[in-house]
Each structure stands twice: as structure tokens, then as C-alpha cells.
Amino acid sequence: MSQYKPRFVITDKIKRLKGQIIKQGKKGSFIHATNQMYHSANLRDVCSSLAIENASFVLTLPQVTEIISGDYTHYNEEDIRAVQNAYKAYSAIYHRQYESIDVYSIAEMLGAHKTFMINLTNEAGCYRSAGIASAGQNQRNKTSMAKLVSSRVDDLFAWLKTSNEDMLVKSCIFHHELMSIRPFSDGNGLVTRMWTTLLYMQAWFMPIRMPLWGVVQERRQEYHDVLAIPDKADSSTKFIDFMLQAISDARAEFEKDPTR
Question: What domains sit in the chain, N to C, each tagged with a CATH number?
């Protein structure tokens, strides 16, 4: 059995933010969500997550909406594919009962990656077969790399399923660890943010329309900086701190205007 265990410390600040988010969750907003509200939330998540993923993605929410509406003659082909794929992937949350998605299923996560990256990479739905900075590997090395990545992802999902840590913190750690593994040749952030969304929602900390990734997009550089901290005892701790603050701020925005 794997002895995999992420390294993190639950600081007083993290405890305070957890308590704040739980309090916000109890306060809640119980307005009925219309199909248009879900559609708007879907478009917002698509736009924000793509912008976080790639600094060269500069399309605005109205432009993303145009593409989804079929008016895309004046956009480049790669942006069109990225938007359409991401919209389809997030629609899996909005058009299915999200409770029915097995967040502990690696196969489901691989399926999400395939949806995000179809026609954008030759390895859509597959683990990367090369190192992050490697090129020209032979087939044996590629197979070994895929097996190594698969093993690390298996360990992470096993920890996610069995850890006694509460889901709010586990979600942040999972996000940080999966981004550290970088299991895919492209699209790691897109898949990780979608999976984190599912974990938050299934823990009842995040209303489906909460603008979390919009808040993170506004802090994009800080998000990438904290993810890039070298792997040591405080690396996951600092990311937990960052994400809990973003969740709390996003919940506050949601409470101000749940219909946005």
C-alpha cells in the first residue's frame, strides 16, 4: 500500500478562514437557480479558467458568449476549439446532477481531460508520455513516463478518498498536488480547476454559481507563484491559504448578488 502523504500544516490562519467559509455556507443563499443563471455561470467559468491557463487567451466574456452562440467567424481556430471544448466540459457539471459524478474516479477525470483537449493535443484523455522539459524520447522512455505519472495520480486519488482531513482542505491540497504532478502534456490547470469545483460543490462549500475562478483570475500571477513554490513542507500550506481566501472572497461576492 502506498505511503503517500502530502506535506502541509494547518495554521491558525487556515483555521480562521475555514471557520469563515463554513459560517458563510450556513448563511447561504437559497434562491432558485434558473437555466439562464446556470448558463451564465458556465460561460463565466469557461472564460476565467481559460484565461488563468494561458496568458495569451485574452477573450472577454461577451466574446466567449459569441463563440458559444455560433458567431465565431472573426476568432482564431485554436481559441474557438478551446472555448467550445471547455464549455462542453463544464456543461457536464451544469447539465448533470453533479452528485452523480464520481470525484474519486480517475477514469472520469481522464474523460474530462479528453473533452477539454480534443483536437488541441494528440494526448487528449491520456497521461503525458514525456517529461515536462523533455523531447525526443524513445518509446520505452515514453511508456515509463506514463506509468510513473499514472502511479503518482493513483496515490493522490487514494489519499483523497481515504484521508480524514475535511473536504475543504483536501480539495485545496488535491489541487496543489495534481498541478505538481502535471499528469498531462497540456490542460493540467483546466482539469484540476474543474475537479476542484466538483470537490467543493460535493462538500457543500461552493454554490454552483459562485465566481471562484473569476476571483482567482484577478489574482492569476499570485496563483501561479504559489503553485511554483518548491516542494517542501510549506508549499501546500501556502496554497491552502491562497485558495481558502479566494473561496471566502468569492462567497462574499456571490452573497452580494446571487443572480449575477
Answer: 12-25+35-130+140-256 (1.10.3290.10)
Residues 6+ apart with CB under 8 A from 47: 59, 60, 61, 64
Residue 101 DSSP class: S
Q: How far apart are CA 36 and CA 21, in angstroms?
A: 27
The pTM for the full model equals 0.88
For residue range 20-66, what is the model confidence (pLDDT) as tens digits?
Answer: 888 876 655 555 567 777 788 889 999 999 999 998 999 999 999 99
- The DSSP 8-state label assigned to residue 34 in this structure reads P
Q: How far apart are CA 40 and CA 44, in angstroms?
A: 6
| Rounded Cα distance, 171 and 152, in Å | 17
Interval 105-160: pLDDT, tens = 999 999 999 999 999 999 999 999 876 544 455 666 666 777 889 999 999 999 99
Cβ-proximal residues to 234 (8 Å cutoff; 6+ apart), any chain: 9
CA–CA dist 113, 188 (Å, integer) = 8
Q: What backbone torsions phi and psi does residue 197 show, to the nearest 5 degrees?
A: -55, -45
